[in-house]
Amino acid sequence: MDSTVSVLVSSLLLIFSTHFALTIANNLEFSRIQPTRMVTKLIHRDSIFSPYYSSNDTVADRTERTMKTSLARLAYLYGKTERDFDTHDFWLNLHPSASEPLFLVNFSMGQPPVPQLAIMDTGSSLLWIQCAPCKSCSRQLIGPMLDPSISSTYESLSCKNTICRYAPSAECDSTSQCVYSQTYVEGLPSAGVIATEQLIFGSSDDGTNAVNNVLFGCSHRNGNYADRRFTGVFGLGSGITSVVNQMGSKFSYCIGNIADPDYSYNQLVLSDGVNMEGYSTPLDVVDGHYQVILEGISVGETRLVIDPGAFKRTGKKRRVIIDSGTAPTWLAENEYRALEMEVRNLLDRFLTPFMRGSFLCYKGKVSRDLVGFPAVTYHFAEGADLVVDTESMFYQATPNIFCMAVRQASVHGKDLKDFSVIGLMAQQYYNVAYDLNKHKLFFQRIDCELLDE
């Protein structure tokens, strides 16, 4: 009886807190934007359309970089939610370029428009870009920074405006402007002025769609990230300052084949034009992260034997985050062990297994040796199934070695034994839609190219 009451109270608090945030956003001193549909391309870090692309990169180069980036992301996600988590040992082996993005959002800001490529991040809320003049900033390869003194649509936000208090570490400067400061996982900051500006997306028919008075951070001081070719961060979190809450509290992204550098149909959609189809499951927002309820895992027709209590939420340590910034899926200890055991039961008789770091790997090729391997299904609350095929479940680490794109989170610290993250590889070939008003997440399996037909 006590546990039932506890769950009910937690649910009511979640509904109240989310409703409160949306109500505050509706009543703040800036106009909510209601465009019909805002759509733009998402560019994978290793795409031929990316400033990071190198024709000299091997498959091994790309996968190693992606996995190290995802390791940093795991630390960020857990460290943000468990502020007493001692991450010192966890950081020692991180690669210096761990801040590299997975996907970049292609858009422009200002009038005249200034092109931008910002990191897509569902784990933070503020949209910010580098602005001139900028101290300790990275040199932009795609063009000049936005200069507020030149743009005719720029307007700084007064610190007397109600929304200022919701910006990261908000303060009032000597000219009564609202200023912010946001520190990222490497300890490098972004600091500047909260302002409004014109946001321009390219439409699906190669036209443009402009929206005025979008709240954003105009960053005049940034940490000098090594080898950074992005211009800012496109926060898609649930916070009051988020572009999502300014545009109808809905968004979606569609991800195709991450391993194909020529794939050009990845896309981000904002506002009421979001395609809300497919399976749906309850969506929670806790500590600024989008969370779902995982109820089971199957491999083919075999439902894995996992302690039913493993999927019950017991405080902050039991959480399943759905994330846009990590490639592999990280599973809690019990869930991972059950999945690995079933995979090994199917493959060890035919292929040579070995551990590559903390990844289960085999000698062979995905395209040749996994023909007929059953799909893995993540079962979420209310009957929503995320079906993961071999291209999303495994990755080709080298020309002759492939690995499982699922990892046990607790190998990087015992505090992570109940922590899970559904990564982008599991979301390949899906349109994933978020409805913050109705607290729903949708999975629709589709080729992204078909969304605009």
UniProtKB/TrEMBL annotation:
**Pfam families reported for this sequence:** TAXi_C, TAXi_N
Domain named Peptidase A1 is located at 103-444
The region annotated as signal peptide is 1-25
Does Hydrolase appear among the keywords? yes
Output the InterPro entries linked to this UniProt entry: Pepsin-like_plant (IPR034161), PEPTIDASE_A1 (IPR033121), Peptidase_aspartic_dom_sf (IPR021109), Plant_Aspart_Prot_A1 (IPR051708), TAXi_C (IPR032799), TAXi_N (IPR032861)
Provide the GO biological process annotations.
proteolysis
Q: Name one GO cellular component term.
A: extracellular region
Q: Which SUPFAM superfamilies match?
A: Acid proteases
Q: Name one GO molecular function term.
A: aspartic-type endopeptidase activity
- Which key words tag this protein in UniProt? Aspartyl protease, Glycoprotein, Hydrolase, Protease, Signal
Keyword Glycoprotein carried by entry: yes
CDD domains for the chain: pepsin_A_like_plant
Report the sequence similarity comment from the record: Belongs to the peptidase A1 family.
User: What is this protein's record name?
Assistant: EUKARYOTIC ASPARTYL PROTEASE FAMILY PROTEIN
Name its species: Salix koriyanagi
Organism placement in taxonomy: Eukaryota, Viridiplantae, Streptophyta, Embryophyta, Tracheophyta
